[in-house]
Amino acid sequence: MENVLRPLIVIGGSVVLTLAVGWVSDLLLRKADERHHETPLWGLLRRARVPYQLVLCAALLRGSYDQAKVLGEHRVGIGRTLTLVLLGSAAWLVIRIAAAIVEMSYTRYANARAQRDPARVRRVRTQVELIMRVVSAVVIVVAAASMLLTFPAMRAAGASLLASAGILGIVAGVAAQSTLSNMFAGLQIAFGDMVRIGDTVVVNGEWGTVEEITLTFLTVRTWDERRITMPVSYFTSKPFENWSRGTPQMTGVVFWHLDHSAPVEAMREKLRDILRECPAWDGRAYGLQVTDSTPNTILVRALATAKDSDDIWTVRVTVREEMIRWLGEKYPYALPRVNTADAVPPPGRADGHRGTRDGVAWHTFDKPATGRG
Question: Is the domain of 144 the same as that of 117?
Answer without folding.
Answer: yes
